[in-house]
Amino acid sequence: MKKKVTMFVWNEFTNDARVLRECTALQEAGYSVYLIALKSKHKQPAIEKREEGFHIHRVDDRILPFRTEWLYLIALCIAYMAPLVGLVCAFLLLLFSKTKVRFLIRKLILISKMIILGMKAKTDIYHANDLNTLFQGIICAKCKHKKLVFDSHEVNTSRSGYDSRIYQIAEKAFIRFPDCVIHENYTRAKYIRRIYGFTPEVIYNYPFFQEGIEKIDLHKKT
């Protein structure tokens, strides 16, 4: 039986080349991939099977009537997450204290729905893409005693829109929980080594292989 990887990504998954390549690479390696993403206001399918062979489930920010999924989440919180209550509250306070209430509610709904889907999934490994899904990955992996991979696509503390100290504190607090951290190149990996004291694995963001494409050494062009 194939091992299953459940991925989280904080976008609508319309043109995310790295996540697409990761999904297809895992498929090629014999894994079954289930991707949890966001749903925009456009006509995107909530549930989609890609031609590459993996499945996507997109969540929106609508407040649905009380359903068994919410009861399920509440029960899990009581049964499993008591030791993490302080961590959860600290994260939410740090991440959302300066935002508007409406924005906060929307984010909480999306995070809750991602956690619900992640907890319901029969999976062997969780995979969080970027800092904004690491929290969801930690909750699911720790509650279900599964492995967690954190793919930090960027240097989060230097990204546009992520320059607040809030994100530095959040990443420092959460980055010790994953079983494996991966980065896009060795320069960024060395930076993580310098500020957090460990060296993440490096997986380059190579495109799909195409026959007949001329190779160009950009270093020689400069």
Automatic annotation (TrEMBL):
Transmembrane regions listed in the UniProt entry: 70-96
MF (Gene Ontology): hydrolase activity
Keywords from the UniProt entry: Hydrolase, Membrane, Transmembrane, Transmembrane helix
SUPFAM superfamilies: UDP-Glycosyltransferase/glycogen phosphorylase
Protein name: Glycoside hydrolase
